[in-house]
Write a structure and sequence with these properties.
With 307 residues, this protein is an alpha/beta fold. It is built from eleven helices and twelve strands. The protein has two domains: 110 residues, NAD(P)-binding Rossmann-like Domain (Rossmann fold), CATH 3.40.50; 175 residues, Rossmann fold (3-Layer(aba) Sandwich).
């Protein structure tokens, strides 16, 4: 019987689907395996059900001894050396379609929180500063008619576009290929940066996108936008983001991902009032996590023609 190793404690549905067909073992804790632990896992199992925290590099995969499948419990695949996996004949799968709604919902949650200055307002009340109604305090943005720029118009970008349009915003986007998106205008990256009141990032982390938001591109953001990163931390140069938030070139930032990740509580980003950071919870709904585990397991079953 082939051996499956699950690298994190995931919803039970994954084991339920796999156990009739495979010998299933797993990491009992929700913490990343070390490189040495991963090397042992790839050397002793036929199949791995992995998460984004598992850096399955070439150095790890060199130790593989009969590994046939990696099923990634994630939409992205940047934690896996895909080229070397292909060279070794290891099939790699992910769960791209399942995460769309939950990630788009969180994008708008962070955006609205920043646009209406909710953290400041909450602190205002809790610190005892609220003495009376005041027509001049904590003025935020009215969204109707504002320009919402989306970098990366895949499934999640399109879902965010629909939500932004629901608030009456004008949607513009930058994508590798021009798409037929009703009510959304395609632009070059420079045009989007220059014209958008708000910018939301939804691109995979690749050699091309790594550090694409940096000092140079931030200088093109003429409207001092709210910036949202729901993609990967490495898409944004952290040092340049800190500088932009401090000097006002970016009005505020909402981050579901960071570089480094996880980010330490003493990091400068964590101490800026105009920055909200949440711990990579774009897919953190009960429904989404259940479906991710289900699809990740089904990808394995399909590979062996068991479904």
């Amino acid at each position: 019987m082939k051996k499956v190793f699950i690298t994190h404690r995931l919803p039970d549905v994954a084991r339920t689907l796999l156990e009739p067909h495979f010998e299933v073992r797993g990491n009992p804790d929700n913490k990343a395996l070390s490189e040495e632990e991963l090397k042992e896992v790839v050397a002793t199992n036929d199949i791995i059900l992995a998460t984004v925290l598992n850096k399955i590099t070439k150095d790890v995969l060199i130790e593989a001894n009969g590994l046939e499948v990696i099923s990634n419990y994630a939409a992205g695949l940047d934690n896996i050396d895909l080229k070397y996996a292909e060279e070794r004949g290891i099939a790699v799968y992910n769960t791209p379609g399942i995460v769309t709604s939950s990630t788009a919902d969180l994008t708008m949650a962070l955006f609205l929180t920043l646009a209406r200055r909710v953290p400041e307002a909450t602190s205002f009340v809790k610190s005892g500063e609220w003495k009376c109604w005041d027509p001049e305090i904590l003025l935020g943005d009215e969204l109707e008619g504002k320009k919402f720029g989306i970098i990366g118009m895949g499934r999640i970008g399109q879902a965010v576009a629909k939500r932004a349009q629901g608030f009456g915003m004008e949607v513009v986007y930058c994508n590798r290929s021009r798409l037929d998106i009703e009510g959304a205008e395609a632009m070059s990256l420079d045009e989007l940066l220059g014209e958008s009141d708000y910018i939301s990032i939804h691109v995979p982390l690749t050699a091309e996108t790594k550090g694409m938001i940096n000092k140079e591109t931030i200088e093109k953001m003429k409207k001092r936008p709210i910036l949202l990163n729901m993609a990967r931390g490495g898409v944004v140069n952290t040092e340049d983001l800190v500088d932009a938030l401090k000097n006002g070139d970016i009005r505020a930032a909402g981050l579901d991902v960071t570089d480094p990740e996880p980010i330490h509580k003493d990091h400068e980003l964590c101490n800026l009032e105009n920055c909200i950071i949440v711990p990579h919870i774009g897919t953190a709904t009960r429904e989404c996590r259940h479906r991710m585990a289900e699809i990740a397991a089904q990808n394995i079953l399909k590979h062996y023609n068991l479904l």
